[in-house]
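The records we work with from here on pair a chain with its fold. These numbers are not coordinates but entries in a learned vocabulary of local backbone shapes. To see the layout at work, look at the sequence and tokens printed below.
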Amino acid sequence: MSTTNQGNAGFKLDHTMIRVKDLDKSLDFYSRILGMEVLRNTEYPDGGFTNVFVGFGPEDEYPSIEITYNWDQADDYDKGNAWGHLAIMVPDVTAACDYLAAEGVNIVRPAGPMKNGTRMLAFIEDPDGYKIELNESLSKDV
């Protein structure tokens, strides 16, 4: 089965935006702990917010995360009931969890096979409680 829609052949995922309560904590988590690069960091004084884009490579080639810090509203966020999770592929979920636990990251679902499946995954939380799935390559599951 082909998953390419010729009408959207040039489409690709660009970024996902999340709002955070503490920009420094979030940048430490995504850059130092998870190893993402800060790709752009822009303050918008007239709008009262800062946007920082982080990712694992250049924005034109890889999807990124837009971290938005609203200077006057950081305590008023509600994720709602439609929020799911971000997902990051790692070479070894168990080793990643060991490392992240040593860094004080909250592991909300330890490494193990997917429910009703065999793909290894785990779930962690960022400093704002956003869930992040860690998973291994689909080719490891074949």
User: Anything to note?
Assistant: Residues 83-142 form a domain with the 2,3-Dihydroxybiphenyl 1,2-Dioxygenase; domain 1 fold (CATH 3.10.180.10). DSSP finds two helices and eight strands in the chain. The first strand starts at residue 15 and ends at 19. The mean pLDDT is 89.
